[in-house]
């Protein structure tokens, strides 16, 4: 889910004024609402994607491939979350797969909820974490201070402006008495490089991380338990659509509502897309993943019909 400064900054995202959306010249590209009886208005769908949010990028391109195989013409539009939700409420976009609830996007839900259709959540364990190598001798953050020397007395963080960094500094470190450890504020690439180097060498390492992220598929890591809840509660990632979308596209809406992704599925998709292929061709990455998960689409459609 790198780059993380986009990902973590959303923890306290401010409402973006409607005038900003208009100023960026959103194109009116949503599906029509004049469907004839029993049919869809058209087979054009626009997916809005939050810029820099890897899980949303991954799932959006996954659904783009699914819909294209069904004969739809799919456009993707990338923008900041405020622009996405302003545009969706105005009917400029059809679907977004990345509304975090109940916390991160609560303000958008409150402001635009009457003009959106909530199609349900597809992931239920989105959270901030402190992670360590899988074979580390501890399992909880409350064990970290007493075993700090085993981790070089360091916790490797990411960018200074990230919400994850603020929460680690202001909440987790005082809650668990970690003031004696060196909290290294660096960057997401630097953190991932340290994580890779340590796990490759069989050494202990403690880093700030978040779910969902491809690092869980690429490296042998585990989250430390957070008994005091200092890192915050897990959130659900919802799919939302413009008003009238289900009426215009009932089959697509049912597929989206039936969507669920396990950690293994999501992390492996992100790993192919952003790590192995470095984000070079997201549509090709999705095709690679679908080849490795040949029953996924059929299982999704079966779940929608159940």
TrEMBL record:
Residues 43-291 form the ABC-type glycine betaine transport system substrate-binding domain. Keywords: Cell membrane, Membrane, Signal, Transport. Pfam families: OpuAC. Residues 1-30 form the signal peptide. Its main location: membrane. It is found in: Cell membrane. This is Glycine betaine ABC transporter substrate-binding protein.
């Amino acid at each position: 889910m790198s780059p993380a400064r986009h990902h973590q900054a959303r923890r306290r995202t401010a409402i973006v004024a409607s005038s900003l959306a208009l100023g960026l010249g959103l194109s009116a590209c949503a599906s029509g609402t004049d469907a004839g009886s029993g049919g869809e208005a058209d087979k054009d769908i626009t997916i809005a994607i939050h810029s820099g949010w890897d899980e949303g990028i991954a799932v959006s391109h996954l659904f783009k491939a699914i819909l294209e195989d069904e004969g739809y013409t799919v456009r993707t539009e990338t923008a900041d979350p405020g622009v996405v939700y302003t545009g969706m409420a105005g009917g400029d976009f059809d679907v977004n797969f990345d509304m975090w609830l109940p916390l991160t996007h609560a303000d958008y839900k409150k402001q635009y909820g009457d003009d959106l259709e909530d199609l349900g959540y597809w992931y239920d364990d989105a959270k901030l974490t402190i992670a360590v190598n899988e074979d580390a001798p501890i399992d909880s953050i409350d064990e970290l201070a007493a075993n700090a020397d085993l981790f070089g007395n360091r916790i490797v963080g990411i960018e200074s402006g990230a919400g994850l960094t603020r929460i680690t500094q202001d909440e987790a470190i005082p809650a668990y008495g970690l003031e004696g450890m060196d909290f290294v504020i660096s960057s997401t690439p630097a953190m991932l490089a340290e994580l890779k180097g340590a796990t490759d060498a069989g050494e202990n390492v403690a880093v700030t991380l978040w779910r969902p992220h491809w690092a869980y598929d690429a490296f042998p890591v585990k989250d430390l338990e957070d008994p005091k809840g200092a890192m915050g509660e897990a959130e659900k990632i919802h799919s939302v659509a413009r008003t009238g979308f289900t009426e215009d596209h009932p089959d697509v809406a049912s597929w989206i509502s039936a969507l669920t992704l396990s950690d293994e599925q999501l992390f492996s998709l992100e790993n192919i897309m952003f790590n192995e292929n470095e984000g070079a061709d997201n549509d090709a990455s999705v095709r690679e993943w679908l080849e490795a998960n040949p029953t996924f689409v059929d299982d999704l459609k079966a779940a929608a019909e159940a």
